[in-house]
């Protein structure tokens, strides 16, 4: 007997209204990934947060979010995707308001953990609901293109929105975004979005959930620890624990009659290649934003709002490219388009190096346009292949894998490319002796720290330190670009070999 998806399909017009409503949480969660980077200085000052507390304010969200995506995807398949979506939206809104008015750093860290919990319920549900609301392959590809554009566009909008809010309001305003964004979903979602679930879900597997958490949490923590503090012993211990838990998780899924996650999907070349394309597209985007947001403000002297506006052309390019590949894929294999998208990302990193060497903001804007084209193309088709590779009843779990790739890519982008940039900066900056031991330590920590110390010194010594800090930062960007370029070229070659034929053939 063949199991079919339990769902009720809305009419043609309502399907696209439902899609519009589903894009709201996608946009919000994506914006939240990058908006906080602009608010960190104001938060640290307003809450008198220590360096360790600031680190946890930033890291708690992706750490918990990445850990819970796979279990939440499984819960969505079992208990209802719309139900989990609305629970996530309501919880995310309430906890975001609490975060906006957090009285202490500890309270904000706790609120960020709650936001991650409910955010993990939002994202897999949106992508899997698209699979079930829109069954026509061409229309679904368009819908996924819109989904991908909202995700990539939200990441680019984060600095713009953050810059505007911080120039006009207090730091908590960045968390209040969820209220106007998610309110329409909570009001219209029950009427527009149909419920769907797996008609024959397996039992809740508490052991698999625990192993999933034991895999992703220490993995993300280990990567971030290595990037931020350089404590190799702790980082490697966390990664080893993640590998052991991951191996136990895979073994349990392979042996179970009704696994929480069908890991055999990774044996399908098209599926694994598409997941890799997802991960590395976000890797390239977040790595770029990590450099660009600082360069445009601290090196070029733009305000947060002006720096964000300079990223708008890249955002537009990502949206347009995602929609255009829906037509292009009728004439070219998806693997070829995804590979070209990843090669465009590689080309963008060449332009980043040029922009850093020439201190040219125009080159940086062009680099983001090229990157936007590559990300829009690669993400749209990779998500389409991922969803097409699984039966509809398991779309929640497949969506969770895609989302986990997104979050892991975001963590790796900041950790790997950010740590390369920071290491080169520290090795290259020249601090005058008059800065003292404490001043030298602060100046070598970050570009912002170097400019603060330079401002305090003043005079010729301060000017020389500021110039050295800016130059060292851009040298770090050149090294980062080399790593990003190599990663994108390698990914393009892997995707070209794994994703073959048309999407329907890849899924088969």
Query: What is the name of the CATH architecture of the largest domain?
Result: Up-down Bundle
Largest sheet: number of strands, sense, barrel closure: 2 strands, antiparallel
Overall pLDDT? 79
Please tell me how large the radius of gyration is.
22 Å
- Detail the poorly predicted runs: 1-8, 503-508
Number of strands: 2
Percentage of residues assigned to helices = over 70%
Residue share in β-strands = under 5%
The CATH topology name of the largest domain reads Growth Hormone, Chain: A
CATH superfamily of the largest domain: MFS general substrate transporter like domains
Strand order of the largest sheet: 1-2
Give the overall shape, derived from the CA principal axes.
globular
Describe the overall structure.
- Helices cover 82% and strands 1% of the residues.
- The longest helix has 40 residues, at 459-498.
- The chain is mainly alpha-helical.
- The radius of gyration is 22 Å and the shape is globular.
- The protein has helices at residues 12-47, 51-79, 81-100, 105-133, 137-168, 178-192, 206-228, 232-255, 269-299, 304-309, 312-328, 334-358, 361-388, 395-428, 436-445, 447-457, 459-498, 503-507; strands at 6-7, 196-197.
- A two-stranded antiparallel sheet has the order 1-2.
- The chain has two domains: 10-202 and 258-428 and 471-507, MFS general substrate transporter like domains (Growth Hormone, Chain: A), CATH 1.20.1250.20; 205-257.
- The two termini are 20 Å apart.
